[in-house]
Structure formats: C-alpha cells, structure tokens
Design goal:
The protein is α/β, with parallel strands linked by helices and 555 residues long. The chain contains 12 helices and 42 strands. The strands form 13 sheets. Strands 14-16-18-19-20-21-22 form a 7-stranded mixed β-sheet. Strands 24, 25, 26, 27, 28, 29 and 30 form a 7-stranded parallel β-sheet that branches. The longest helix is centred in the last third of the chain and has 18 residues. The two termini are 43 Å apart.
C-alpha cells in the first residue's frame, strides 16, 4: 500500500509492503486474549529516523549540580532544563522510588500529555555511562577506562574524542572503529594499528591517509590496495622513501593527488561484509536486512539503524542490541516491546517505557526497575492491568496517538542538542516553525593563561611546549576556544602528530561528513550496467561498481 508522510514539511510517498503489515500484526500486543492491532506508520522512514534521533543527546554535556545531593556532576541535561537530575550512582540507587511519582490514568486527557507530565517529574539520570573508570566525560557508553569525550562506545581504554568505537585502545578522533589501537582520525576501520587518516580499512598497520585498504602495511596515500607493503600513491616505494613521506606529512599538493587517486578507483556500491539478502549500508555479519544502516550481527531487521549486536525481527529501531520482536524503539534490549526509549537491562511485553530496566508487562512508565504490571508508574494487579491497558489504547486510537512513537515535542532536549541535527540539519527558524525546541549555546570561556589562534601553532609537535596545557586554542574554522589535555598531548607526541587546529566538535563534524548519507539511490553499475542500490548519489563523481565487479577489480 502507498502512504503519504503525515509531516506537512515532508509529505513524500512511501510504500508499506505486505511483509511490513505482517510484521505489525506479529508485534501487536494481546490483552485478555484480544489483540490490539498496531496500525501502519504515518511517517516515512526518514522522518521516523529523525524523530528517534531527536531524543538522543550524545555530545552536548554540561556541568551542573545533582538535584538530590547538590554534588557537581557532568550531565547531558543543562542546568536550565526543568527536571530533577541525579548523578549516575544516585539514579541507580535505592534512595528514591519511581513509584512515588505514579499517577492514575485520566480518560479525559490525551495519553501523551499525561506521559509528558510523568516524564517531567521523575528524576533523570545525568548520563548513560555504565562501569566507567576515569571516564567521566562519556555518554551512551559502557565499560570504558581512561577515556574522555567518547560517545556510543564500549570496552575501550585510553581513547579520546571518538564515536562508536569498540574494544579499542589509544584511539583519538575516530568513528565507527573496532578492535584497533593507536589510531588517529580514522573512520569505519577494523583491526587496524598505528595508522592515521584511514577510512574503510581493515587489518592495516602503519598506514597514513589510506582508503579501502585491506591487509596493508607502511602505505601512504593509497587507495583500494590488498596485501601491499611499502606503497605511496599506489606505487611501490623504499622504506626510506616511506619514512620521508611520514616525516613530511600530507601537503596540499599531496592531498589533491590523493583525492584524485580516489576518483580513479572503483567504489563498492554498499559496504556489506558477510551478509545475505541485505539492503542498506554498513551491514556486517547479518541477513535479511531491509533499508537499514550500521547493522551488525543481526537478522530480519527493517527500517532501522545502529543495531550493534544480536538484533532479531525488529523494525524502526535504533541504537539497540539483544532485541527481538521490537518495534519503534530507541536504545533498548529485550523481547516484544514497542514505543520504548532507553531500556538497557532487558525488558519484555511492554509499551511506551522511558528509562526503564528489567520491566515486564508495563505500560507508559518512566524510570522503573524490576517492575511488572505498572501503568504511569502506578502498580496494578495482573487482572487490573489487562483490563485498563485496552481502555487506554482505545482512547489513544480515537485521538490518533496509538502506534506512534513519542512526539518530538516530548524530547527533553533542544533539537540542536541532539544527533538529529547532525543527520537532518535544520535552521533555528525551521525548528521553531515545527514547534520543536532550540537552545542557544555558547562556550564557557576557559580559565587559561592565554588564547592562541590555531594558525599560530608550531607545525611540528617537537616545538609544542608543555605550557600548551595552560592555553586555549582558537578553532581555525569556528573560532570556538578549546583546550588540549595532558593525555591528548602525550598521544600526539607518541604518534608524532601536530596539534589539531579545529575544535573537537568541528573535527567530529568533518569526520561524519566523510561517511555517505543514510540513504539509498537506484543506479547502474558503472562496469557491467547491472541495477544496484547505493549510498552514492547519482550526481557524485565516484566510480561505483556492483559487488561482483568491485571484487574483481580489487583482487
């Protein structure tokens, strides 16, 4: 069936297949033996993705005080937000009871207004950063040690300014890198060591400015090579020539030659590794994937993104793992849950949960742990729960709320604080016109001895004094001040890298711009003419091959 996106600023047509309808039927909840059918979505896949992302503030961290103890904390909720915000240890403790905020359902009010009222009262966890050791400035993270300003990352050590890194050590300014160490400014790379400015690389060592390299070592400005050693610009060089290039670094002339070389080499239409029947981009060890992005170790996933492990039979989900039969969920683990936001400890058979963990048969609750048969944070018996939830759903259905994820207006964050602004950038005027929130953000002026423009920094790390730790650097692009921390300076000296000229946020923006958009276009393979779907837009200059032609060209 054809559907038109309900958002008036979008209004694009999208298709709902028979398989989609079968899935919605399969995940529809049952109460007292009666199924409550989940209706087809009213928003197109892109608008649904944007809606999820508008609830995720990864990087906008602030200093504030705990609402419980008054202790200083680092939080994703700025001081001006009208919420109680607790430190992580306080939020996870037994010093407060989420049930004390419970409220009875009001049949005369809309569902989302009642849930918003509950949400405004229940205390918030300042960060989602579990089992951290000396990693206070991290968010949506787990089990990191000696890390600073990393986000969406697990099991790392001694790493800085990075996004979606996993089991890495000593990596700085990287994104979507796994099982690697001593990396700087690398993107979408796996099992790499002591390499700089590499993208889409695997099993490389001592490579600088590499793109699509596999099993290579001691390469400089190379593209599409396999199992090569001592190459520069895809041509063999001596060890001394390679060392000379590393010492000299990338000049403007060399960078232009490197970019020109990239345009002469074939690019694979999509980045799939060990996949079967997959549609999307960056799909790894997965099968039966439909229109999804950054999916790993999962099966039967549709219209989703950032499913990092063991997702199965899920749709319209994001930032989730170990999830099965989940629908319209964000940052969840569990079984048979829908319309939920951030459930890290597995929950099941629940709907419209927010920051709940290990909960089962719960509906429209916030901040609960290890609870069952609760509605709006109020405890019910199983029989009462089974009788009341269908009544609430009937009212939601009449109001057009049933089957919808939380509206963007319920996000506790301003749009420009969230990841939505990265993937779907809007102006302040556009955000406000949609009734969403915008927050003017200014940098707190660092307490330093002096501020030095980035252009005045010495080119060689050997000429950078220890005193730089007491300075602030003015970003060359944004003019925002930023500081260098001791751990960071030690890394640059170890890797013989110059001090960066750009603010960490600007470096992040430039890294993310290296990745293709989360969108597919229909094209033809530029080698054999076969019809393909690719994340390379038709007007882009790259040579794009289907998988068969690409593999034949690079091996």
């Amino acid at each position: 069936m054809q559907q038109t996106c309900r958002n008036p600023w979008c209004a694009q047509a999208f298709t709902i297949t028979d398989d989609d309808l079968a899935f919605y039927d399969k995940v529809s909840p049952v109460f007292n033996g009666k199924k409550e059918p989940i209706p087809p979505p009213t928003l197109c896949p892109e608008c649904r993705m944007q809606r999820h992302l508008a609830f995720r503030n990864e990087r906008s961290l602030q200093k504030r005080t705990s609402s419980l103890s008054g202790a200083p904390i680092v939080s994703m909720y700025s001081e001006d937000k009208p919420f109680q915000v607790y430190s992580q240890s306080e939020w996870w403790s037994d010093h407060w009871d989420p049930l004390q905020y419970g409220q009875s359902w009001d049949a005369s009010s809309s569902f989302f207004s009642q849930l918003a009222s509950l949400l405004s009262g229940v205390p918030k966890n300042c960060l989602h950063n579990l089992e951290a050791e000396n990693a206070e400035y991290a968010n949506y993270c787990w089990h990191n040690k000696n890390c600073y300003l990393i986000f969406g990352s697990d099991k790392n050590q001694d790493s800085l300014y990075s996004l979606w890194i996993y089991e890495c050590q000593n990596v700085v300014d990287c994104a979507f890198c796994y099982n690697s160490s001593l990396l700087y400014q690398c993107v979408d790379s796996v099992r790499c060591y002591q390499s700089v400015h590499c993208q889409d690389c695997e099993d490389v060592r001592d490579c600088w400015y590499g793109y699509d390299l596999k099993g290579c070592s001691r390469c400089f400005a190379c593209v599409g090579l396999r199992q090569k050693d001592l190459h520069a610009f895809n041509k063999p060089v001596t060890e001394e020539e390679w060392k000379s290039l590393i010492r000299q670094g990338m000049t403007n002339r060399m960078e232009q030659a490197f970019l020109a070389l990239r345009q002469t080499r074939p690019h694979r239409a999509v980045h799939h590794i060990n996949t079967e029947d997959a549609q999307g981009e960056y799909i790894v060890h997965s099968s039966r994937i439909i229109n999804s992005f950054d999916i790993r170790n999962s099966q039967d996933i549709r219209y989703s993104h950032d499913i990092f492990d063991r997702g199965k039979d899920c749709a319209h989900c994001s930032f989730s793992g170990e999830a099965e039969l989940c629908y319209e969920c964000y940052e969840v683990k569990g079984h048979a849950i829908a319309f939920c936001n951030r459930n890290w400890l597995p929950s099941s058979n629940s709907l419209y949960l927010w920051d709940c963990d290990d909960c089962h048969h719960c509906f429209a609750c916030v901040g609960l742990r290890k609870k069952s048969y609760c509605i709006l944070n109020k405890q019910y018996t199983k029989e009462e729960y089974e009788a009341l939830v269908p009544k609430i759903i009937a009212k939601m259905r009449a109001d057009g709320e049933w089957g919808e994820f939380f509206p963007v207006t319920m996000s506790p964050f301003a749009y420009n604080e969230t990841v939505a602004q990265e993937y779907f950038p809007l102006t302040k005027e556009e955000v406000l016109a949609r009734g969403w929130k915008w927050r003017e953000q200014t940098d707190e002026m660092p307490k330093v001895e002096k501020i030095i423009p980035a252009a005045q920094l010495p080119d060689s790390i050997n000429d950078i004094p220890d005193d730089i730790l007491n300075w602030a650097i003015e970003c060359e692009a944004t003019k925002r001040p930023f500081k260098i921390i001791k751990q960071e300076l030690e890394f640059y000296r170890q890797m013989r890298l110059p001090v960066p000229h750009f603010h960490p946020d600007e470096r992040h923006r430039r890294r993310m711009a290296l990745r293709n958009p989360r969108k597919l276009w229909k094209r033809e393979c530029m080698k054999c003419g076969k019809a393909i779907e690719t994340s390379y837009a038709p007007e882009r200059p790259e040579i794009v091959y289907c998988e068969s032609c690409y593999l034949a060209a690079v091996y």
